[in-house]
Amino acid sequence: MSDSLADRIETWMVGQMPIIRMHGGTSVVREADPETGEVVVELGGTCSGCGISNVTATNIKRDLLADFEEVTDVTVRVPSTGDQGASTVEGGRGGELQHETDAADHF
Predict the structure, then answer these.
(1) pLDDT tens readout for residues 10-25
(2) Is residue 79 part of a domain?
(3) Which range marks the domain in which residue 37 is found?
């Protein structure tokens, strides 16, 4: 039995984007719909307010589209207020995020 698209993307994030965790950032796949091809990833922790978070978001979008045939649309959200909470997923990533509107790729 194969892993879900969300599980495969989570595994990909751990392998392809270790720099996020190494710098105290977090990431979590909030949506991964294999039927529509839509994926939503949220960054948090030290990604919040980081001057290169938009570069990281652009790289994630580009690479997910290239590495997953079924993915057709990627949204990477970068909160401007940081990680609020202790709930995490594999690799110390994830958590509940507090959001605030900032710019195009921020909420």
Answers:
(1) 999 988 888 888 888 8
(2) yes
(3) 5-92
42's enclosing H/E stretch is strand 38-45
Would you state the structure tokens that stand for residue 15, as one six-digit string? 């392998």
Are 39 and 69 within 8 A, CB to CB?
A: no
Cα separation, 43 vs 82, in Å, equals 9
In this predicted model, what pLDDT tens digit does every residue of 28-41 receive, in sequence order?
999 999 999 999 99
In a domain, 17, yes or no: yes
Query: What's the order of all strands across the beta sheet hosting 38-45?
Result: 25-33, 38-45, 73-77
Cα separation, 46 vs 35, in Å, equals 32
pTM: 0.70
